[in-house]
Write a structure and sequence with these properties.
Number of helices of chain A: 21
Structural class of chain A: alpha+beta
CATH class of the largest domain in chain B: Alpha Beta
Strand order of the largest sheet of chain B: 5-4-3-6-7
Strand order of the largest sheet of chain A: 2-3-4-5-6
Strand content of chain A: 5-15%
Number of domains of chain B: 2
Radius of gyration of chain A: 26 Å
Number of strands of chain A: 9
Radius of gyration of chain B: 19 Å
Shape of chain B: globular
Oligomer: heterodimer
């Protein structure tokens, strides 16, 4: 019964969203306040219905109701509780329900938080949001019903793919979807602005917090996925340029560009039609990512079970949503008033450069990801898709971006002084040079470019801190004045400093692990020792373990350094039966300086084991940097300006509930 | 319509082109081999060896027994996922397995095989991907089943997962008389 109830709730949500998609839009066009006001209750109703459906599906998973096909295919009665819950979104149908749940949640938040929004703009935003919701609800109901029953029900379920049974991955999709779906708000705002034919600084201020919230969630989601791949897939890599990874990375790049261009639109009333376009592109890439993952046009480890019919349906949604919004853009954008002018060397100019480089980076990733599809068009090219392609095309675009990232915040709006900015950055430059030299002195091996990469990252971190120090007049003004400035400095400025420094930290990790990873592979018998990166590992032998839904063999290692005991490590291989699959659980000793990473292989004759030992220097910095970046976003999100909206209301009390909307 | 307005049409036009490719991609169903190659003799090719002590791969090496040809690369993440299954196929099922190393640096491929194990009887190095084009390879990994007459009987796109092995690959091999 519960499942049927959930199915009914989804159908009801579709009906409500269709009403929400049309009536407020008509009301806004005609100036009918009653119809305009309908948007809010509809948004609430839509969210409640989808929440009920999601709860019903979760319930079916919790009680292992195998008469529901989706549960039977993806769950198992012996599965730990956490994975019964994460199993809800560990499959195509359930993840789509989570998708629309997030979508309606964001819609609800706009409905609740948007007290300072003009009612017609809010009605239009919510109507666009409902169009997207209606499209995906129809997709779920017509092609991917999660509540389908089977009779007779199987005795037990198939289980969740064991490599997905992991705490990191349990939370990876919700964060990713928060990010993808969060960009839908920016998209809806963009389309609503095109319908109204008006984009002003207030518009940019309303869009920014949503974009920022989505960006933070996406950053965390991507970092979680990367960390998961690192420790679970058992070969110590952290990014594989897999089509599905790229599908989440492309909206991130577009969203990062959008954050920066929206700053120009807000502060200087410029770059308006470009900001609108980026808002459309960021969400379009989220949709395209969904299409790529679920249609089967690209093959990938991550891909969901695919079905051409579903692919066609999503393609249809893409054409309506993206094609429709871009058509509107082509018609309306030329009529938008041009904003303030600025000199190329200025804060605006810096942000334009940021946008150009991010767009170029985005284009290289996009081309690389879709290369197999474009193969017919461009013939058999010489560039192979995979890490080699991306490293040769993506990295060179990132280098100037990162170098300029340090200088941009130092430039004034309208007309900046490049020589002056560089002069003020001389300490940052000196620090970067010193660190580069130190790297050359300390590390003899590895590519020559690596110390330069570390230097570049240091340059960004030092420049961010320097810019912050300058703003609070650290050491140049009395301490009391510095303290006053620190308190008065907008949270958004703190956010920028933190996020830019986080980026530098992540880059240090990426460069270090790519250039200086140590890798030792050795066949070992119990009692053998292997040396790697100054550590000595003694293989103590194998033992059997029994997990809740797997059995495992663990190889024990005693790690010493200069004769002193460092730690003991257990590298496991887990044998799952439902479904039958083997996973490797590498043993990792993580420190800020680097990770000692041990994975164990198949048994060879005579108790021999292939043991792989890696030392990944500074690898944790990658995810640490990503978390710091997201933290910077959250700090920026707490800025009063973003909570309050229109500058006229600066003195007004903070509306309750609006503060952390979507964070 | 002046030129400035045309600029605003660019995103739409680009999207229409991309959507067109998506549509073609859906039609093509990349998991199936174009009918021209299935049941046809393997294309003529000859690839140099990866290792000094293990021969390369050419057309004449295939046929006579039912075998698998696997296209792999060290830079390809899904290849790593399917690798334990290839090892199992070669060791437990004793299926003759031949490798085509696709657009890879030989030293990377060697290190990769040293790390994960080498299930292949012969490995041909296809540095520029020409042979892969002859085979109609769409991406890595891909695996082909070759019958005793040296004809391609089945093509698997993407990594071979445990369920593919049990439900598709092994039955297909049995059907061909292994």
């Amino acid at each position: 019964m519960i499942a049927e109830f959930g199915h009914f709730a989804l159908a009801l949500a579709l009906v409500i969203s269709l009403a929400q998609a049309t009536l407020p839009l008509i009301g806004a066009q005609r100036g009918d306040a009653v119809w305009v006001a309908l948007a809010r209750p509809f948004a609430l109703g839509q969210f409640l219905c989808i929440a009920v459906a999601f709860a019903a599906l979760t319930y079916a998973y919790l009680v292992s109701d195998f008469s529901v096909v989706n549960v039977a295919r993806n769950s198992h009665s012996a599965k730990p509780l956490l994975y019964k819950i994460s199993g809800v979104w560990g499959n195509h149908e359930g993840s789509m329900v989570l998708w629309v749940l997030m979508l309606s949640l964001f819609g609800l938040l706009v409905a609740l938080a948007g007290n300072n929004l003009p009612p017609t703009l809010r009605a239009r935003v919510l109507a666009i949001q409902a169009w997207i919701g209606a499209g995906f609800l129809a997709f779920i109901l017509l092609t991917s019903n999660p509540f389908e029953r089977i009779f007779p029900p199987p005795v037990d379920g198939n289980g969740l793919n064991p490599i997905l049974q992991d705490p990191g991955l349990a939370f990876h999709p919700p964060f990713l979807y928060l990010g993808y779906v969060g960009f839908s708000i920016a998209f809806s705002f963009a389309v609503a602005a095109l319908i109204e034919g008006r984009v002003d600084p207030a518009w940019a201020r309303w869009v920014r917090p949503w974009t920022l919230a989505a960006w933070c969630a996406l950053t965390v989601g991507i970092a979680l996925g990367s960390y998961w791949a690192y420790y679970e897939l058992g070969w110590g890599g952290w990014w594989f340029w897999d089509p599905v990874e790229n599908a989440s990375f492309m909206p991130w790049l577009a969203g990062t560009a959008l954050l920066h261009s929206a700053a120009v639109a807000e502060k200087r009333d410029a770059l308006k039609s470009w900001t609108i376009l980026l808002a459309i592109i960021a969400f379009s890439l989220s949709l395209i990512g969904t299409f790529l993952v679920r249609s089967g046009v690209l093959t990938s480890v991550h891909a969901f079970a695919t079905d051409p019919q579903r692919g066609l349906f999503i393609l249809l949604l893409l054409v309506v949503a993206i094609g429709g919004s871009l058509t509107l853009y082509a018609i309306r954008a030329p009529r938008l008033k041009l904003g303030g002018l600025f000199h190329p060397v200025s804060r605006e100019g810096g942000l334009v450069l940021n946008n150009l480089l991010l767009s170029t980076a985005l284009a290289t990733v996009f081309l690389g990801t879709l290369y197999p599809l474009f193969l017919d068009a461009i013939g058999a090219g010489k560039v192979s898709v995979g890490a080699p392609y991306f490293n040769t095309t993506f990295v060179p675009v990132m280098v100037p971006l990162v170098a300029a990232m340090a200088i941009g915040p130092m430039l004034a709006w309208k007309r900046g002084d490049l020589a002056g900015a560089l002069g003020r950055l001389k300490f940052a430059f000196a620090t970067a040079v010193a660190v580069t030299a130190l790297c050359f002195a300390l590390v003899a091996r590895g590519p020559v470019l690596a110390p330069l990469g570390i230097g570049l990252a240091t340059w960004v971190i030092a420049a961010s801190l320097l810019e912050f120090a300058e703003r609070i007049q650290l050491f140049t003004a009395p301490a009391a004045e510095t303290w006053r400035r620190m308190r008065n400095l907008p949270r958004a400025s703190y956010g920028m400093t933190i996020a830019h420094a986080g980026m530098g930290i992540a880059i240090i990790g990426m460069v270090a692990v790519s250039a200086w990873r140590v890798e030792v592979v050795q066949a070992m018998r119990p009692g053998d020792i292997v040396a790697a990166a100054g550590f000595t590992l003694r293989f103590e032998g194998m033992r059997e373990l029994q997990g809740p839904n797997y059995r495992a063999e663990a190889g024990s290692f005693t790690v010493t350094r200069n004769g002193g005991l460092v730690t003991r490590l257990d590298a496991e291989r887990r044998f799952f039966t439902d479904p039958a699959q083997l996973t490797t659980e590498a043993a990792i000793r993580s420190t800020l300086l680097g990770d000692l990473y041990v994975a164990i292989g198949d048994e060879a004759p005579g108790q021999m084991r292939t043991v792989r030992v890696w030392y990944n220097p500074l690898v944790v910095w990658i995810w640490l940097g990503a978390v710091i970046m997201a933290l910077g976003g959250v700090v920026s999100l707490s800025d009063r300006r973003l909570r309050i909206g229109a500058p006229a209301r600066r003195r007004a009390a903070v509306p309750a509930g609006a503060a952390s909307a979507g964070a | 319509m002046d030129l400035r307005r045309l600029v605003y049409l660019v995103p739409l036009v680009a999207f229409i082109a991309i959507a067109g490719y998506f549509y073609l991609g859906l039609q093509r169903d990349s998991r199936k081999l174009p009918s021209v190659l299935i049941d046809q003799p393997v294309p003529s090719f000859a690839l140099p060896p990866l290792f000094d002590d293990k021969p390369g791969l050419r057309t004449a090496d295939l046929g006579g027994e039912v075998a698998l040809v696997n296209v792999f690369a060290s830079w390809c993440a899904p290849c790593r996922v399917e690798h334990p299954i290839l090892i199992r196929l070669a060791n437990n099922e004793k299926v003759p397995l031949y490798g085509i190393n696709h657009k890879d640096r030989p030293e990377d491929a060697k290190r990769w095989l040293a790390e994960l194990g080498d299930p292949y009887r012969r490995i041909g190095v296809d540095r520029d991907g020409r042979a892969s084009i002859e085979w109609g390879v769409y991406g890595v990994p891909e695996t082909f089943i070759i019958d005793r007459q040296g004809r391609i009987r089945y093509r698997h796109v993407g990594p071979i997962m445990p369920q593919d092995l049990d439900k598709v690959i092994l039955p297909k091999l049995r059907e061909l008389g292994r």
